## 1
Amino acid sequence: MSDPGASLARLHLFCAACAIFATGYGLADLEPSPAMSTVLWVGPSVAVAAWLAADGRRTRAVAAYDASLFFYLTWPVTIPWYAVHTRGRAGWGLAAQLYVLAVVGRLGLAWGALLRWSIGRLAGVGASVSLAVLGTLVLGA
């Protein structure tokens, strides 16, 4: 974790993967397995908390041994505090970015459901879209 940009890039990659999977589940109107639900709902916020703890060690802003647990349990409050404390006024952009990353799994499910509803409206079949209709719209077959 010597390069903070690389660790933030890995955080983006993990959260993007969660968003893609969550959007796919929402679009296909499938219920994820319990393990996948846990990864999609809790994984991004745990990853943000782990990044905050690692960055806190790097910047020496937080010297607590269990900073990851503290950041996970209190992330709605500690994200802006930490970002502004370590980066000044420029930290508000980082705080907004970390908020979005922490909830990206939940947003992905909603985004997929909204896409499914929109495609259904365009196809004229209402809110429920079968995969066949979706494939026809996407592939043009």
Note: Residues 4-139 form one domain.
## 2
Amino acid sequence: MKLRHEVGSFFAISYPYRSLVNSLYLTITRPNIAFSIGLVSKFMQLVCLITDILINIIITIILLLLIITIIIIIIIIIIIIIIIIIIIIIIIFKLIKNLECSLE
């Protein structure tokens, strides 16, 4: 029995297994089998819920790391621009000073 990925969801539950569990609900006459099937059904739902929550948490963490990385890159670019502007201002002042010296 292979697991298939549901469309539009992160669940990886096998459809034949789920339909088997659902069909057994209809034909159960023995309480011990009914109890076992009930446990399996609850476990399936719990696995789906836990898987969905974990995947959402992982996606959120990845997105936060991406945003933090982008912010750090923007800050580095701003710092580089400021350094370039300071260098340009220093060069301009040196040129002005050299021009004043040459005019004297």
Note: Residues 72 and 78 are 10 Å apart (CA to CA).
## 3
Amino acid sequence: MLSELPGDEASGPAAPGDSPGEYGQGFSWVEGEPGSLEEVIEAAFDYRGDVTVLLKDGQELAGYLANRSIGDEGSSESWIEVFPASGDPRRRIPNAQLGGFRFSGKDVASGKSWETWLKKYTERKEAIARGEEVENIDLFPEEHG
């Protein structure tokens, strides 16, 4: 399962032996490491930043993993589609050509969960109650004064 792969904690890139966690910027996986290609493809698909696809022929392609199809293991029907960061046309790559992944781009939605917003909102309201100047994080600005 994905949760068994080493991941990136908020403190930095993943390293061998890290405890399971989020698949954030810095996470990497190459063929032969624990976990399966299909599991890593799913994690890369869920990641909201660019990934670097490591191809078996030594090429690397940085971009956004926008689509994937997982057929039977080794099936020619298994592929990923990547929108290259370079702006080149979308590429469809058979899974048989994949040698690994690096989560190389920043996850643009990292830290933007409802829980994070609610915590900031609550802290802001408490600061206002103490009479402190605060930055507006509301969906709809409030008038103070």
Note: The CA atoms of residues 69 and 78 lie 5 Å apart.
## 4
Amino acid sequence: MSIRALALDWLSTRHRVGKGRILTSKYYDAAESWTGKDAWAVQIPLAALDTGAIYRTVALSASRAQIAFSDADALGRIAESLPIRFDETGRVFLGDEDVSTAIRTPEMSQGASTVSAHPPVRGALLGLQRKLAARGRCVVEGRDIGTVVLPWAPLKIFLTASPEVRARRRYDELVAKGQTVDLQKTLQEILVRDERDSTRATAPLKQADDAVLLDTSALDEPSVVDRMEALARARFGADLP
């Protein structure tokens, strides 16, 4: 994959785990602010890990089991035994089922934000995220990657964009997938999610003190990728292929 599909809070880190290197990232929402994880993977051969997909899969599993997103203990048990895996193209599987599309709905986006606020869920998934990131060279994206999951990241990029720009990007993405969405509702959902994630007691979304702020509001996607790659190459130099 490439390092091009991250979003608001991109935490690029390098950390030795065996022979692997980890580039980690934090963000608001990949599509909303245009990240570089997937596109980078093309330019710089690295694996990519979307930790948000893990929380979305917890939300999907809970929804199917008719478990309320407010039931922290039950959600924690789901997270502890979550049969999730990623293939080499980034598709997400729940057991043998490809749920890559099912977890990308607005409902699962809000669901992921809600379930991720519960300490039992975050505690259950912390080890899983670190294990997945330790498999080799990869870029990890998520809202608490650089501050909680992989706080040793030497290069942190906080990718941001105005709520209005992020709403338009999310709207365009969903429309392109054939979904019927309302732009103003999408904006409101983003504002609610940002407030929830930024104020939760456990692992809140915030910019790390040593993160580089990159506002993508006025940038197109190739420009975001170029700037992220430049930051990574400036930090890691010859260590990157």
Note: The chain is about 45% helix and 15% strand.
